[in-house]
Amino acid sequence: MTTQTPPAGAMSVDAAIDGLGLGPFQWRLLLICGLTWAADAMEVLLMGFALPGIAESFGLRPGSTETRWLLTSTFAGMFVGAWFWGWVADRLGRRQVFLTTVALGVVFGLLGAFAPGLGWLVVARFLTGFAIGGTLPVDYAMMAEFVPTAWRGRFLVYLESFWALGTIMVAALAWSLSTLLPPGEAWRWLLGLAALPGLVGLLARLGVPDSPRSLLARGKEAPARAALKRVARLNRKTLPDVPLAAPEHTARVTPAQLFSGGLGRRTLLLAAVWFGLSLGYYGIFSWLPSFLKAQGMELGAVYRTTLLLALAQVPGYILAAYLVERIGRRATLVGYLLGSAAGAYLFLAAGTPVQVLATSALLSFALLGAWGALYAYTPELYPTPLRTTGMGFVSGMARVASVLSPSVGALLLTGQLPAALTLFAGCFLLAALCAWGIGIETRGQRLPEAIGPQQ
Fold first, then answer.
1. Cellular location of this protein (predicted)?
2. CATH of the domain at 217
């Protein structure tokens, strides 16, 4: 390892960010990233709402191979995109990916609305997933790297909570369109309108500077200082006129370092947590609208029910934002995962419509709280030179699970509800064990800047 001796009186980026405090810059960044995150949620969950209309347009049978291809195409694209864009963001900087992925997501999302056939729609959804898969590692790295230590966990959960807003928006939009248009037409409008919030997010992102941590890790001290001065100006603070301390770094950082030493163990355990939580979450919620419809619920009622379940996510996020700073990231994540496993079995035992709604709401509360804690925990476990690469890899494992989840979730429609929910509960329990096995608490800790021998 090569090290660089900082100049006398040099200031670390952590010290600078903490000194500039929490202010308008961080709140604006939260809103900008949150808008795009809500738009991504709409795109990811879109097919569950559009599927009835698409099935009518192209003559698809419930649970058919073509239906599973359609549901997995977005996730398959996100799998490739998360790995690719995470690596690019660590090599070339956060901001380029921060802008490019959102622009591509809007273009490909709109193309899907005009798809003349099922094959074209599958390709458009894959490319949309490829684009939005890159926003995940970059947005969370940017947020983690701009927020003071004392507020970082809370803000990362706040960012994830915009997923609930996106869920509410897509459910409300689907419900409204179902009352205005026949299903065979409504799905095209749904895809087209769902792509537009990303355009607003792209315009808002143009004023966001690159991460000073990433810039400094790549030897760009002057742009890093300029980015910090922008934070200082918006927060009405003064940046001390001292040099920035460059972090220790290896001569060459490669993705292979994610799997060496203690960092390798951490990566594998995190990958298992992301995989298990994603398989259960998407296995349940990708098919839930179709499952409710198969139980005899009319389409408008299905969308209204899904809207209520999205509202149940909000208190889950609020509690998670409190707990990650009160009891820590790891304990909060494990507690929510155990609650999700219990919720899956309560859903299985539900015998009346009211019980189905109540247990579904509990699942929604617990699962989205778990996602909030996981998104807060993960970027804090990786050093700056590998932060988006690490986020990209473990979130890519979630996309592997997402690709598999429609096939597993189809058990809900084929009458094998006990088998499906037992599998999902097992995934949540395994994820809880792996999260606890990481053995590191990041609450109140500054972000690691260098790849140390124990990482």
1. Membrane
2. 1.20.1250.20
